[in-house]
Design a protein that fits this description.
19% strand, two-stranded antiparallel sheet, 7 strands, three-stranded antiparallel sheet, 168 residues
């Protein structure tokens, strides 16, 4: 009968940093949940885990895996059709907290089986974290927050008046 109980939002679970490095934080419900540098496990709660997995927080790109032909070369792996591209996965995994056996499995049934995958990750540092698109670093247009659409057009060279000089 105890196995039929669904975990409440305040039950503890252990969050695991799959990158095995620590040194990052997640902000949820006006609280900082910090993985100190070198720490790979912290105590979290069910509501935090639901937030992470349902809203796709703490997702990262893994490094591409080379094929046999490119294993020892420094070739661009993105151009080869046989090389396995990097994957967009969650950096966090969960496991049962002491005294709460089975809560991680019940929670994974609600948020997805990916939550239980605690295999180590190799994060691709050439990719912008938190973006599901091919966010490879390169030429980037930086627009400060609070900019208007007119500011954005000016930065692209599309002013409303083609002959106007922009003076700041």
């Amino acid at each position: 009968m105890a196995d039929d109980v669904i975990a409440t939002d305040h039950d503890p679970v252990i969050l695991i940093d799959r990158a095995m490095t620590g040194g990052f934080e997640i902000i949820f419900d006006a609280r900082r949940h910090v993985f100190p540098k070198g720490e790979i496990e912290i105590i979290g709660y069910v509501d935090l885990v639901k937030h992470i997995f349902r809203n796709e927080k703490a997702r990262v790109w893994t490094k591409p895996a080379p094929c046999r032909a490119h294993k020892d070369t420094g070739a661009n792996l993105r151009e080869c059709l046989d090389c396995k591209p990097g994957e967009y996965v969650c950096r966090i995994a969960i496991k049962d907290a002491p005294g709460f056996k089975g809560s991680a499995e019940r929670l994974a049934a609600a948020v997805g089986e990916e939550a239980l995958d605690a295999s180590p990750l190799d994060i691709d540092t050439n990719v912008i974290e938190g973006w599901s698109l091919e966010g490879r670093t390169g030429t980037v247009l930086v627009v400060p927050t609070g900019s208007t659409s007119a500011d954005f057009r000016e930065r692209q060279g599309q002013t409303r008046h083609p002959g106007a000089l922009v003076v700041r």
